[in-house]
Amino acid sequence: MLRGSKEELPRQLATPITVMKCEVCGTEHSRPHQEQDFVFKKLKSFCPKCNAETEMVVVSIHVEEKKQKT
Ligand SMILES: [Zn+2]
Predict the structure, then answer these.
(1) pLDDT tens across 3-48, in order?
(2) How many domains are there within the chain?
């Protein structure tokens, strides 16, 4: 019997981060995850290095857990 724990993650405590890569200069940028984001999705976003709006590819989506201060 499988005991899945997928639904038990404390989602509200975690902030998903979308990492995307500029197709022009290859620089990686991250921003807070948006619902429609998925890996390999192409987005138009402003690249501070190119100083222009470029096409970016989502390379990873990960969750940054809030660190508890002790
Ligand atoms: Zn760029």
Answers:
(1) 665 666 555 667 899 999 999 999 999 999 999 999 999 999 999 9
(2) 1
